Amino acid sequence: MSEHLHTALSLATQGVPALPLRRGKLPFGNCPACAHNACGGRPNMKTPGPCVCPRPCHGWAAATTDPQVLNSAAWVVAWRHAAAVAYHPGGAGVTVVDLDDPAAIQWARGILPATRSVITTRGEHWIYRGTRQSANAVRPGVDIKSLMQYARWLGPGTGATAALTDVVRALAVKPPAALRAPQALSAPLSGQRGACPHRTPTYLERGIAMAEQRITAASSAVHATVYRTFLAVLSTHGRCGCLTDTHAARLFTAAQAKGESPRHCTDAWTNALTTLGLSHV
Fold first, then answer.
1. Gap between the Cα atoms of 189 and 212, Å rounded
2. How many Cβ atoms are within 10 Å of 235's Cβ, its own excluded?
3. Core-most of 35, 215, 253, 278, by most CB within 10 Å?
4. What is the four-CA torsion angle of 91, 138, 142, 267, rounded to 10 degrees?
5. 130: left (phi over 0), alpha (psi -120 to 50) or beta
6. 0.90 exceeded by the pTM?
């Protein structure tokens, strides 16, 4: 039995869902049956949950506390080549504040409640009891890892685990960097200003609401649905100056609720802008 598998099985006995990471601290790629996200990236696109695929794919959703799955023949190759072990904080009932550099640690010591901490390669993980939505770059050098996210297991850490407080929850009041529209949509994309020339402001509101609904209703091919929806919104309103950061944030939030990562949302938005020739304006 490999050291990483032994660690994962030990975590499982404590109710901590574990998964293997390959070199670069990345999850293993989707198995052939799930190639190109044919399964949608998760077994159930309506609610987050563990992956039912027998192989360790789908990132955070592969994390499990089932020793039979962790020690199964389908996972043996992954553990043989694993470079580290990760876990799903949300599945373990905790939230990790990932402090990525000394400046972030210094900031946390002056703002956040003291709690259990784990030393990382570049900084520290501060762990709180309770779950919340994950968010990247809530401030320089600070990420939140809880629901629908994974964190590298680096040991139990030191100190008592404090409860998740409003101070920690407030970190995501400021939208993550990925939710801020890549092209500063608070200004018109084409340099024009004024009301949307297509119909009325109600037309824009209805269009954004329909776009949110389209993403939320997707039961498969979520990546493609998100991209096509972004493309449709930008093709209609991307040149008239009516789209704002708030509209973009609503679409990004809907996509992330379906399991899309902030990186995938940003890529889809950028690709749509490029396709429409708006990336330079």
1. 21
2. 13
3. 215
4. 80
5. left
6. no
Q: Using CA atoms in the order 72, 74, 77, 79, what is the torsion angle rounded to 10 degrees?
A: -40
How far apart are the C-alpha atoms of 141 and 25, rounded to whole Å?
A: 18
Is residue 252 over pLDDT 50? yes
Helical (H) or strand (E) element with 187: none
- Smallest Cα–Cα separation from 21: which of 72, 53, 57, 50? 57
d(C-alpha 30, C-alpha 28), whole Å: 7
Contact 127, 153 (CB under 8 A): no
How do residues 21-69 score in pLDDT, each as one tens digit? 998 888 888 777 777 666 665 544 344 456 677 788 888 888 999 999 9
How many residues are present in the chain?
281
267 pLDDT band (50/70/90 cuts)? confident
For residue 86, give the H/E element and its range: strand 84-87
162 or 28, which is more confident: 162
For 139, left (φ over 0), alpha (ψ -120 to 50), or beta?
Answer: beta
Tell me the Cα Rg of the chain: 21
127 strand-pairing partners: 96, 116
Q: Give the residue carrying structure tokens 């990562």.
A: 261
Return all residues near 70 (Cβ < 8 A) that are at least 6 apart: 5, 8, 9, 12, 18, 64
What does the angle CA 63 – CA 73 – CA 15 come to, to the nearest 5 degrees? 30
CA 206, distance to chain mean position in Å, is: 27
- C-alpha span between 190 and 241 (Å, rounded): 7
